[in-house]
Protein backbone atom coordinates (compact mmCIF):
# COMPACT_ATOMS: atom_id res chain seq x y z
CA UNK A 1 0.00 0.00 0.00
CA UNK A 2 1.11 3.51 -0.73
CA UNK A 3 0.26 5.71 2.26
CA UNK A 4 2.07 8.86 1.15
CA UNK A 5 0.12 11.93 2.14
CA UNK A 6 -0.57 14.48 -0.56
CA UNK A 7 -1.28 17.15 2.07
CA UNK A 8 0.90 20.22 1.82
CA UNK A 9 1.78 20.28 5.53
CA UNK A 10 3.96 23.39 5.27
CA UNK A 11 1.10 25.39 3.74
CA UNK A 12 -1.33 24.02 6.30
CA UNK A 13 0.93 24.83 9.24
CA UNK A 14 1.46 28.37 7.97
CA UNK A 15 -2.29 29.06 8.00
CA UNK A 16 -3.94 30.91 10.86
CA UNK A 17 -7.53 30.52 12.05
CA UNK A 18 -8.42 33.65 10.09
CA UNK A 19 -7.39 31.89 6.85
CA UNK A 20 -9.96 29.13 7.26
CA UNK A 21 -13.47 29.65 5.88
CA UNK A 22 -15.98 28.19 8.33
CA UNK A 23 -19.05 29.72 6.66
CA UNK A 24 -20.34 26.43 5.23
CA UNK A 25 -20.13 24.58 8.55
CA UNK A 26 -23.42 24.65 10.49
CA UNK A 27 -23.40 25.79 14.11
CA UNK A 28 -23.65 23.15 16.80
CA UNK A 29 -26.89 23.98 18.55
CA UNK A 30 -28.50 22.61 21.71
CA UNK A 31 -30.77 20.55 19.45
CA UNK A 32 -27.71 18.92 17.89
CA UNK A 33 -26.33 17.90 21.28
CA UNK A 34 -29.73 16.66 22.50
CA UNK A 35 -29.74 14.17 19.65
CA UNK A 36 -26.04 13.34 19.84
CA UNK A 37 -24.77 9.99 21.07
CA UNK A 38 -21.58 9.67 23.10
CA UNK A 39 -19.44 6.95 21.63
CA UNK A 40 -16.58 5.62 23.69
CA UNK A 41 -14.06 3.21 22.13
CA UNK A 42 -14.68 -0.33 23.42
CA UNK A 43 -11.18 -0.62 24.88
CA UNK A 44 -11.88 2.47 27.03
CA UNK A 45 -15.52 1.79 27.92
CA UNK A 46 -14.81 -1.03 30.35
CA UNK A 47 -12.78 1.38 32.52
CA UNK A 48 -15.69 3.73 33.14
CA UNK A 49 -17.12 3.98 36.66
CA UNK A 50 -19.87 6.12 38.13
CA UNK A 51 -18.63 8.37 40.93
CA UNK A 52 -21.08 10.53 42.86
CA UNK A 53 -20.71 14.27 42.19
CA UNK A 54 -20.02 15.09 45.85
CA UNK A 55 -17.20 12.52 45.95
CA UNK A 56 -15.59 13.97 42.81
CA UNK A 57 -15.98 17.48 44.25
CA UNK A 58 -14.19 16.42 47.45
CA UNK A 59 -11.27 14.89 45.53
CA UNK A 60 -11.01 17.93 43.25
CA UNK A 61 -10.85 20.17 46.31
CA UNK A 62 -7.97 18.15 47.79
CA UNK A 63 -5.53 18.13 44.93
CA UNK A 64 -5.25 19.52 41.42
CA UNK A 65 -4.37 15.99 40.20
CA UNK A 66 -7.52 14.47 41.67
CA UNK A 67 -7.52 11.44 39.34
CA UNK A 68 -4.12 10.38 40.62
CA UNK A 69 -5.35 10.94 44.19
CA UNK A 70 -8.39 8.71 43.59
CA UNK A 71 -6.10 6.01 42.19
CA UNK A 72 -3.79 6.31 45.21
CA UNK A 73 -6.69 5.97 47.66
CA UNK A 74 -8.02 2.90 45.84
CA UNK A 75 -4.55 1.34 45.70
CA UNK A 76 -4.05 1.85 49.46
CA UNK A 77 -7.45 0.28 50.09
CA UNK A 78 -6.45 -2.78 48.05
CA UNK A 79 -3.09 -3.05 49.80
CA UNK A 80 -4.66 -2.82 53.25
CA UNK A 81 -7.33 -5.39 52.48
CA UNK A 82 -5.14 -7.99 50.81
CA UNK A 83 -7.05 -10.75 49.04
CA UNK A 84 -10.38 -10.13 50.77
CA UNK A 85 -13.36 -10.27 48.46
Give your account of this protein's structure.
This protein has 85 residues and is mainly α. The chain has one domain. Helices cover 49% and strands 0% of the residues. It is built from 5 helices and no strands. It has helices at residues 9-14, 30-35, 42-45, 53-62, 66-81. Helix 4 (53-62) crosses helix 5 (66-81). The longest helix is centred in the last third of the chain and has 16 residues, at 66-81. The model has no long low-confidence stretch (mean pLDDT 87).
Entry summary:
This protein has helices at 9-14, 30-35, 42-45, 53-62, 66-81. With 85 residues, it is mainly alpha-helical. The model has no long low-confidence stretch (mean pLDDT 87).
Order of helices and strands: HHHHH
Largest beta sheet, briefly? none
Mean pLDDT: 87
What percent strand?
under 5%
**Radius of gyration computed on alpha carbons:** 23 Å
Question: Number of domains in the coordinates?
Answer: 1
Q: How many angstroms separate the termini?
A: 51 Å
Instruction: Please tell me what the overall shape is.
Output: elongated
Q: How much helicity do the residues have?
A: 40-55%
Amino acid sequence: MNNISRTNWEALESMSDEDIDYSDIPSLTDEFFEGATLRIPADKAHHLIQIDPDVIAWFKAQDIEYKRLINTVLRRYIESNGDKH
